[in-house]
Amino acid sequence: QGLIVESGGDLVQPGGSLRLSCAVSISRFDMYIMAWYRQAPGKQRELVADIFRSGNSEYADSVQGRFTISRDNAKNTIYLQMNSLFSEDTAVYYCNTWPATWAWGQGTQVTDSS
After folding, report:
1. Cα angle 87-88-90, degrees, rounded to a multiple of 5
2. What are the residue ranges of helices labelled H in 1-114?
3. How far is Cα 114 from Cα 105, in angstroms, rounded to an integer?
4. What is the pLDDT of residues 18-73, one digit of tens each?
C-alpha cells in the first residue's frame, strides 16, 4: 500500500499546459505499473495514462498526443505533462497503480478558467 500525494493542479485556459506530480511513499516503487486517472463532475473515474516499469506508456484516446506520462523511480514520483488542454479535461486527477489497488489520494484539481 502506497501513500499517494498528487499536486500541480490549477486553473488553466483552453490551450494551456500543466504538469502534475504524484509522489508515492513505498519501497520498490520501480516494481509498480503506475497510472493517472481522472474524474470529471458527474462522471466515473477513468484511466488517462499508464507507465510500465520499462518506461513504456499507454494513453486514452482522448489525451493521445497531448499528454505525456513519465516517472522518476529515484524520487518515487510520476508526472503528467498536459498540453493543449480542453475544457473537457476539467477533472480531479489521481494517480494509483494500474490496475488501481491502493487507497486513493486526495487528487489534484484541473479546471478550465474560461
Report:
1. 75
2. none
3. 27
4. 999 999 999 999 999 999 999 999 999 999 999 999 999 999 999 999 999 999 99
Contact 51, 34 (CB under 8 A): yes
CA distances in angstroms from 92 to 9, 53, 54, 72, listed in the order given: 8, 25, 27, 22
Sign of CA dihedral 83, 104, 35, 40: negative
Q: How many Å apart are CA 90 and CA 70, to the nearest integer? A: 21
Cα separation, 48 vs 92, whole angstroms? 12
3 state DSSP class of 8: coil
Partner residues linked to 20 by β-bridges = 80
